[in-house]
């Protein structure tokens, strides 16, 4: 069978199009690469563009919460505030922009490992950091967070090699020293706030000695508990301490309520007694003065005064209808046992005559 190869070639080109022409690939590549050099002044334009891009690379912007720290040949040169700035491009100068307003944190005794399905964070304990010895030779598990800011960006960047590791190690050392001066009961119950404040002050002094440029914002205890092996026993102790404090608070509350009332009642009794005393004294003085005046008159005329006093007393007795009067005759008085109607005492009556 004779094949018409030219017809087959034409049919294939109509179906699939022309294939690549390998003969012209080299020519096309040469044409593209020689394009700039065929333009008048092409190499100079490329060089100028490269220089302009290099110069433009020195423009940088410092955000409001940042500080620009410019290094010249690796050494500190100057600091810049927020806004656009310029530095000599690499390799002469370089710039770093640490965030000085951002509050950063390090975790000691635990690590955050993610978020739970229902919300909240998941933590992983780090026993080699958390287990600490107390002042009464007990072991306590302390997990806490240190919040800090970059106070001096120059010291932060150039004084210490690994700033975050330095802050964490210093915080752990400070907390161990503070906990080592407390009893385990204090660390588990009432001494947490004092531990936080003391650890913050001690950590700041340590970092200042290192010239770290770090400002400690807060030291926050996340969890303080006894080791798991003795957890139940310490929970019982803590519960007993809470009951003790509750009873003390209730007693103090009752004392604060009852003492003012008792003091008020005592003051009222004293005032009443003082008033009664003054009344009795005034009455006694008045009676004494009256008796003294009567005695003076009595000394002047004893018989007349005696008769007048007797008459006044009899008038007072007979004029009082509520008094029961018993009158005895001379004959009744001469009897060995005079009869007195005492069974009728207390009943108002007119004068009655006693005797036989």
From TrEMBL:
Pfam families: Band_7
Annotated ranges, domain Band: 57-238
Major location (coarse): membrane
Keyword Transport recorded: no
GO MF, one annotated term: peptidase activity
The organism's place on the tree of life at top rank: Bacteria
Membrane topology: Single-pass membrane protein
Keyword set, alphabetical order: Hydrolase, Membrane, Protease, Transmembrane, Transmembrane helix
InterPro entries: Band7/mec-2_domain, Band_7, Band_7/SPFH_dom_sf, HflK
Cell compartment(s), UniProt: Membrane
An individual GO BP term: proteolysis
GO cellular component term of the entry, any: membrane
Record's keyword annotation contains Membrane: yes
Subunit-level organization: HflC and HflK may interact to form a multimeric complex.
Family recorded in the similarity comment: Belongs to the band 7/mec-2 family. HflK subfamily.
General function of this protein: HflC and HflK could encode or regulate a protease.
Name of the featured protein: Protein HflK
């Amino acid at each position: 069978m004779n094949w018409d190869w030219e017809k087959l070639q034409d049919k294939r080109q109509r179906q699939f199009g022309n294939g690549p022409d390998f003969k012209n690939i080299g020519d096309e590549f040469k044409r593209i690469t020689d394009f700039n050099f065929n333009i008048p002044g092409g190499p100079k334009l490329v060089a100028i563009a490269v220089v302009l891009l290099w110069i433009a690379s020195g423009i940088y912007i410092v955000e409001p919460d940042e500080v620009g720290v410019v290094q010249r040949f690796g050494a500190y040169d100057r600091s810049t505030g927020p806004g656009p700035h310029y530095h000599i491009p690499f390799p002469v100068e370089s710039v770093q922009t640490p965030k000085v307003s951002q509050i950063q944190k390090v975790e000691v005794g635990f690590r955050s490992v993610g978020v739970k399905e229902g919300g909240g964070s998941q933590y992983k304990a780090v026993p080699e950091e958390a287990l600490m010895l107390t002042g009464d030779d007990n072991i306590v598990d302390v997990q806490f967070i240190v919040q800090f800011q970059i106070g001096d960006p120059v010291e932060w960047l150039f004084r210490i090699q690994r700033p975050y590791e330095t802050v964490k190690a210093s915080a752990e050392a400070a907390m161990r020293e503070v906990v080592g001066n407390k009893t385990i009961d204090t660390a588990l119950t009432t001494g947490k706030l004092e531990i936080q404040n003391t650890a913050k002050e001690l950590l700041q002094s340590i970092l200042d000695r290192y010239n770290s440029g770090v400002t400690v914002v807060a030291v926050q205890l996340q969890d303080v508990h006894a080791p798991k092996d003795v957890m139940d026993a310490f929970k019982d102790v803590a519960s007993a301490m809470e009951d003790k404090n509750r009873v003390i608070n209730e007693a103090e509350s009752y004392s604060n309520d009852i003492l003012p009332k008792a003091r008020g009642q005592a003051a009222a009794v004293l005032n009443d007694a003082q008033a009664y005393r003054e009344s009795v004294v005034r009455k006694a003085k008045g009676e004494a003065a009256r008796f003294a005046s009567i005695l003076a008159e009595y000394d002047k005329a004893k018989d007349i005064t005696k008769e007048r006093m007797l008459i006044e007393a009899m008038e007072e007795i007979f004029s009082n209808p509520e008094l029961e009067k018993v009158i005895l005759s001379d004959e009744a008085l001469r009897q060995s046992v005079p009869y007195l109607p005492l069974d009728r005492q207390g009943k108002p009556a007119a004068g009655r005559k006693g005797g036989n």
